[in-house]
Structure formats: C-alpha cells, structure tokens
Amino acid sequence: MNRTTVALLAALEAVIVAAIGLAVCLVPLTVLWAAQYHLAGDFMVLWRATADIWLVGHGVNLTVTLDPQLVGSLGLPGAATPFQVTIALLGFAALTAGLGVRTGTRAAETPYRSTGAVSALAVFFLISIVVTATAGSDIVRPSIWQGFLFPMFVYGLGIGIGFVFASLRGVGEPSADRPGDRAGDDGAGASPLRTAAAPAVTAVRSRVAAVPAPVRTALLGALRAGSAATAMVIGVAALLLALLIFGNYGTIIGLYEQLQTGVAGGVALTVAQLAFLPNLVIWLMSWLVGPGFAIGTGSTVSPLGTALGPLPGVPLFGVIPAHGYAFGLAGVIVPLLAGFFAAALLRATRRAQTDGALALVLTALGIGVVAGIELGLLAWWSAGALGPGRLHDVGPNPWLVGALAAAEVAVAAVIGLLAGARARR
C-alpha cells in the first residue's frame, strides 16, 4: 500500500464519517418534509437546519434572533433580544469521535500513519468549512471560526485515541509470524508497519524511560485507576438514566401527546433527544457526585434538594421529578465505591510488595485528580445555554463537579490502596 492510496482511503473515510453525522439529522427532517409538506418549499431550509444541528452537536455556538411576532406568540422572557445556544448535543460529538477512533486505528496500521491522519483531518476540515458556509439563516447564525475548527477538533481527538489504542495493541513490537521481525534478523524482510512505527515508538519509550521508575509507576497507575473510576461513575449514571426512562415512561409519553407533533415530527424529536442522551448521562453523573445540575437560572437538582421552575417542553425531561429523587444522598456512594474499587484493583496488580504511606497517599491523590479533571471536563462540555432568559444556565457546574469528584475519589482511593495491599499479601 503506497502513500497515495493511504491518503485517499483516509479522505474517503472522513467523508463517510461526516456524511453519517449529517444524515442522522437530514433523513428525519426530509421524512417530515415529505410527510407534512408534500415536498413543497425550499429544500435548502432543511439543509440549513441540518447544518445548524450538526454544528451545535460539535460545540459550535448559535446566535438566535427571533422575529418580534414569534416572540409574542412564544411568551419567552428575554427572547426579544438575540441570545446564544451554547449547549452541545453530545450524541453527534460522540459519534464523530467514535468513528474517528476507527480512522486513527486504521491509519496507525499502515506504513504512513501521519499521511492518513493528516489527509482525514484535512478533508474533514474542508467539509466543516462547506457546512458552516451553507448553514445559518436570518434567525440562526453559527459562529464561523468555531464551525471551521470544532468539528475537526472532535474528529482529531478520536483519531488520536485510535493511535493510542493501536499502540497498546503492540504496534511496532516484534512478531514471530513475520520473518523480518524476529530477533537477530537483518531487517531485509522487515514489515513496513514496524519500520515506519519504530522511530516514533522508540522516541516515546526513551522519554518515558527517562522518568524515575517510582514516579513513572505512580503516574501511570493514577492515570489508569482515575480513568477507571471515571468510567465506573459514568456507567452507573447511564444505567440510572435507563431505569429512570423505563420508570417514567408514562410521563414521557404524556409529554409527547401534549406536543402533538405527529408521527414524522415525533421521529425528528426523538432523534434530537437521542443526541441529547449523553448530556443527561453526564448530568446524572454530576448528581451522583453531589453538586447536581440546573435547568434554568436559580433552579437546582441535587441530592440536597430540588427546586425547579418551568421546564422546556422536552419529553425526555420527564425523568426529572419535581421534588427530587427518592434515593437522595445514597447516590453519593457511587463515586466513593468507584474510587475504592479502582484503587484496590490497581494495588492488587502492582508488582511492588511494599509501598510507603506517603507513596500510597500521593498515588491516591493522583487518582482523585485524574478522575476530577475528567469528570469536570465532561460536565463543562455538557452544560451551556439552551435558550433566552433563565435558560441561559443549564447543566452542572464543572468546577464543583471536578473538585468534589477529586476529593471523593481520592479519599476512597486511599482506603482502596490499603485494602488492595492487604489482599495481595
């Protein structure tokens, strides 16, 4: 496989990734257009709406300017002045990043990994420019520079993760199945993959080897255990959301019936809510950690209490009870258990038989810091402005989420490390 082929295949995959994300939005809108409007009107209206939704799904801010007559009919306070929608529909970002992982893994398995990655990013950047240039209307205007860069950043993040996965699978390691990779071979039959990847792998290993062994072990252990604790908390939050949707199914259906969107409109609304599901998972994660989240300025949904004003007419918000969840402070045990189990598993698998108390405490603090940073970033990405007036403040406070998560996980990690050491002995 030569360099040109790798570049073309990566470019094609970038086009497919962008097309999938746009089609998720465009297909339901087209069905709605055909069913209710019988293909009458300008198709570009649908495309602009699709482009706006795809961009906001990647974190691009939208500036909305409503018509005065429409403002009067809606009755939304503060809607008369232009307002911004800054909350991201993380389902689109997760889809792009997930497909980017596949792109990065494939590029890393070729002799020209840099060529594949650069080609894919360049094509995705051009697609973002086209989508941004054709998006917007007199009512909605996306941020131009964010539209150019943010989708490419999300896709590039996925490609980088794909590179890491490929490296963890042993890219560049000798293989007994390939004659050129056996020890003592002169390299004449060496694999192009190993030849291309070896300098990068060697450079990374030399940098890592320069770090003192105790520090390196503590940092890598904290990164692994902190990420594991984050995954545990997010997993419990996702399970909790599924149970809440099942338990409040009647309320959600009632909200659908009140909206009277019809079949096609219901399908479009459901797709939009599916894109919003990752946001709700992260909001429930912030509830488990303690700070909770807000749906409008002055409102709060937390283990300590719930105070809600008027909610937007989104059926999925039916999972949020007006008086809070019955299990209250019991949810806070989730990040504690996550920190405990992640640290215990880390300690049980470490080679060192004994560690000083200071080393254990520092490792536990590192685990808490990693989990706090990761959960805080997720909370920051899931929050933003959903509309005018009080809807300018929606989602969790990332600083509180990160700080409390770091403290809870660190305290539990100290106990987990001590328990893991005792179990190993």
From TrEMBL:
The keyword Hydrolase does not apply. Signal peptide: none annotated. InterPro entries: DUF6350. The keyword Membrane applies. Keywords: Membrane, Transmembrane, Transmembrane helix. The chain crosses the membrane at residues 6-33, 83-104, 116-136, 148-168, 225-247, 259-277, 284-305, 325-346, 358-381, 401-421. Pfam families: DUF6350. This is Uncharacterized protein. It comes from Leifsonia shinshuensis.
